[in-house]
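Re: the 503-residue chain
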Amino acid sequence: MLLLPLLALVALTVLVLYRVLRPSRLPRGPPGLPVLGNVLDIPPKGLFLKLDEWKRTHGDVFTLKAPGQKIVVLASAKSAADVLDKMSAPTSGRPRYIMMNEIMAGNLTIAGISANDRWKRCRRIIHEGFNMRAVDAYAQLQEEESGRLCRYLLQNPGCNLYPVLERTSCGAILRALYDAPSLFVSPKGEEKVHKLAQQMDAFMKAAMPLAYLVEMFPAMRHLPRWLAPFKAYGEDFFKETNAYLEKWYQEGCKSKEEGGKSKGFVVASEETRAQFGVTAQEAAWVSATIYAAATETSAAVVQAFCMAMLLYPEVQKKAKAEIDAVLGSHCPTLSDKASMPYVQAIVKETLRWRPPLSSGVQDVDYGDYTIPKGTIVIGSIWSINHDALTFGDPSVFRPERFLAPDEKTQSRPLPNYHDDDIAYGHGRRLCPGRHFANNMLFLEIAYLLWAFDIVHAKDGKGRDIDMPNLQFVDRGLTCRPADFPCTFKPRQPNLSEILPPIA
């Protein structure tokens, strides 16, 4: 009678000892320190450049260690495709993000939660509003905002570029989501934009690996507020942010066209969310998440495009030849996109050359490795986009890599990958708003090339001001080029008459 329990105990002991004592099958990485692992090796800024440095010394797949946590980095197109795309089911989760997601967001940020039921139903309403066909409804407002950007630059030639690009991207997504007035027409909305920017910044900082000790020691989550200042701050942040987002969502729900037809995503989602079981609170956070994803990243890409035009004037010249042949004197529209393959290739090459997201965070076997459940897996987007084996000359801005030899049709430089959308993530976490973003990027870039010659600003002695080519503004999980001056010279003497009015 005692034999079966004894055998079960022996089997359990063997299993435990095997799991504890067996050699690790994780890939090797920087050696680190006892107990602390690589905590002190992870820089607070420029993590994507450090990951790329480690790739050169430790290979395409390597492991970083911290107390209670292991991080596997995928630094090549093949490894990211094999693990995050082909194994998207087991790798579509998210690390726990105790501070950012649980405490500061109440498990309501779909970008930070695991692939659970809430994530699935919230993704469904995003897909309804931003799939490839649905985004056609936003074409007019995207064209208007792109034209207003050019008019603003014509009227303010010496302005600081990035804030204007950010105003354009913020204005477009605000109109698409909440049917809000354009920020170029009604600057009153900038107070809301500033408030959301503060919230986004706080989330970005909290999402950085090892930003808070509670990520390494989860038991700290249960400390009382008076013993845990981080917890008191996070809970207060959630209460204030939740109230703000729900209020903004309700204001957006009141927006209707004459005749009662919905204009914005918020109104449409309010009418359909019950179909997918999405609560009003979830819908409010979904809308804010879309806003956050669409603003800073789009502005960063257009800023990088302007830098590329200064560094590679031959690309600008070639693009203008295509634009002039297709457009003549009329403004770009989304319907012109199919006729402008080189401009489309510029969009894709900008996303590759200076991706706004430097890393994408997602119990599988990969080759000779075993990645245990609970391991953070990072696709190093910068390293993937700058892989010399794939791109040959990754530091060079060369749109032709996205074109077939006839330069009239698109090509895929990564045949085993999901087209050219590397900058938009991987697998089931591929950005659901990428069609809206790609349309907006095409229109802004086409408008800027059609309206202006983008040239170097001059110093006091008339010399070109050098570009800060590898200097960045690092905001945690996102980055953009450091600010630089440039000049937008109108290509037509009557440009002011041709551009759509701001008002």
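The chain has 17 helices and ten strands.
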